Amino acid sequence: MSLLSIGKTGLYAAQAALATAGNNITNANVAGYSREVVVQSTSISMGGANGYIGTGTQVAQVKRYSDDFLNAQVRTAQASSSGLDAYQAQVQQIDNLLADTTSGLSPALQDFFSSVQNLTGDGAGVSSRGSFLSSADTLAARFQSMTGRMDEIRKGVNTQITASVTSINTYAKQIAQLNDQIGKLTDAAGLNPPNDLLDKRDQLIMDLNKQIKATVVPGDNNSLTVSIGNGQPLVVGTNSFQLAATNSPTDQTRTTVGYITQGKITPMAESALTGGELGAALQFRTQSLDLAQNSMGRVAIALATTINDQNHLGLDGNGNPGGDIFTVAPAEVTKNVNNNQTSTTAIAATVVDATQLTTSDYKVDFDGTNFNVYRLSDNKKTVISPFPQSQPQVIDGLAFDVSGAADTGDNFLVRPTLNAAANFKLALTDGAQIAAAAPIATSVPLTNSGSGKISAGSVDKNYLAAPLGASVSIAFDKASGTLTGFPADVDVTVNGATTTYPAGTNPPFQDGASYTVAGMSFTLNGAPADGDTFTIAPNTGLGDTRNASLMGDLQSTNVMDGGKATFQSAYATLVSTIGNKTREVQANAEAAAAQLTQAQSAANNVSGVNLDEEAANLLKYQQAYQASGKVMQIADTIFNALLQIGS
Questions:
Q1: 18 and 42: one domain?
Q2: Which of 156, 277, 489, 523 is most exposed by smallest CB count within 10 Å?
Q3: 391 in a domain, yes or no?
Q4: Do 514 and 530 fall within a single domain?
């Protein structure tokens, strides 16, 4: 080969290197761009007996610097960081809502019980009754407003899920299209793929991981296979698969994710969709939002139930038995839309013991033989037995009443607490309806000669079955040391359940002992004389605030979590749980951001453009270009000299 041709190959190689270096410099700030380098190889030499002489150079490859292992680390870190950032933004809203010292639930609870205490301070007068109604209405409004805010956040989660699914589907289509283009533009040996399309595809996959954690596996013909969840393929070669944002079959207000196969949408397990904004939205809703709203509802039900029950045990300002102060929302039951529409199954769940309520939802299904109740928080199964039921079956303080016929696989969702706070309302319309007084009054006749005394007396829920209609006179018989005059048709217990005396028998007198009969309890003290009596009579309700005092005591009574927590401590536990979760997510988000930075730095060390290095390369390739041009100039001079000699 002539010297002119050798110079020409060097000139072309230097020109390609200059163009590549310039391309690196101009794309240094383009997201996803990987630096390129021209790889040269020596052309085949020519020779004979006197040795081989080189024939120049050639451009073997424009190499793209990118490390698949480091890129995979960046994708994993990106999915984690994006997910935690999205989770933090959502849970921070719940934390601020619950912990607010002004508009949170705690101050409203405190004000309500303060108004209950005020009833006892002025003998349940008109002003204190009006204050009670006002604070009770404020408490109800606080429950409703906080739940309303959570509902807004829940709608926002639905919107985020829909937007993420749309983005994921778009990325999947684009990645599949790039797989197709890259395969068509790559040479048979697979050594010279279109680098710019490879960069674009890698960036799309990186953006995909901002929405959901994706697994990437190399495929044929320089393609990539992308999968999510439990291995569901999203991109295979030139084909893309789609997700769908759809309503939950058991809750049409809850957006879930389905996988589309042959035109049919198959629901995906939310626990399998992790990472990215989609995974964060699903995780936040299940772990934090549902917990917060259910916990608020549980407090609302327990508060309404216990306050109502105590009000039932008193007399209002008109001398009538007390009614409900607050409304108690029934459990919400929804059937799966895929159930057999001809099934006649009816399910009701009624709160019968608020102290046993959990924050879980429940699933009721029919397996072909039995109806089963699953507590969704831990998947604990309880079989409805016997069936048909003779009476409702109580599970976690809920009485499940199941009737009718169902097909195998039919299922229902029971949510006893989710909307309880939203439906927590004031039932009273008149302050006079507050049952501040106890329904019974005790007294000691002035004619007694002994020192015996009787306490003011109280009642429990058993009293409501047969309220006292007339006075009862309990007399002391010194000869037998017993008490007479108790109702003849009910048992009498002494000191709680320690001793029970059957109906018609006379219990002994014990100084300081408590007696319970027909739901009425009182204590006798002192030394009564023979024939001394103690009177228990229906109360008039005027000026008496004993029932209001008992209602106020509920503030410090452990009535939740099986008798382990008060209303405010149960709410404080919720605030603490969400607060701890917020701090945990915040710390994890900071750590994930640091890991992402480290992973990106490691990947950039391989694929990133160093402008100083490229500037040096420009000078090197410029000199190579000039030198190759000089070779061609010399070749031209030699050729002209040869022509002159020949002439």
A1: yes
A2: 489
A3: yes
A4: yes
Rounded-to-integer distance, Cα 19 and Cα 32, Å: 20
Residue by residue, DSSP assigns 505-564 as --PBP-TT-EEEETTEEEEEES-PPTT-EEEEEE---TT--HHHHHHHHGGGS--BTTTT
For 103-115, what is each residue's pLDDT tens digit?
889 999 999 999 9
- CA-nearest of 218, 248, 121, 225 to 172 is 225
Alpha carbon of residue 173 to chain centroid: 31
From the list 250, 246, 398, 256, the residue with the least C-alpha distance to 336 is 250
What residue type is 243 in one-letter code? L
How many structural domains does the chain have?
4
Asked if residue 76 and residue 184 are part of one domain, the reply reads yes
Confidence (pTM): 0.88
Asked if 118 and 231 sit in the same domain, the reply is: yes
Residue 274 and residue 181 share a domain: yes
In a domain, 106, yes or no: yes
For residue 193, what pLDDT is reported? 86
66: left (phi over 0), alpha (psi -120 to 50) or beta: beta
C-alpha count within 13 angstroms, C-beta hemisphere, residue 400: 27
Structure tokens at 57: 């150079």
Q: 101 and 210 in one domain?
A: yes
Inter-residue contact 150 to 194 (CB < 8 Å): no
- Give me the residues of the chain with pLDDT under 50, please: none
Residues 358-374, buried b or exposed e (16+ Cβ, 10 A)? bbbbbbbbbeeeebbbb
State pLDDT tens for residues 583-633: 999 999 999 999 999 999 999 999 999 999 989 999 999 998 898 888 888
Do 94 and 35 fall within a single domain? no
> Coil, strand, or helix at residue 399?
strand
User: Looking at residue 343, what DSSP letter applies?
Assistant: -
How distant, in Å, are the alpha carbons of 73, 243, 434 from that of 214?
12, 14, 60
**Among 559, 564, 567, 509, CA closest to 534:** 509
Question: What average pLDDT does the structure give for the chain?
Answer: 91
512 vs 454: CA distance, rounded Å: 9
Domain that holds residue 347: 330-414
Tell which residue, 599, 595, 594, has the closest CA to residue 70. Answer: 599
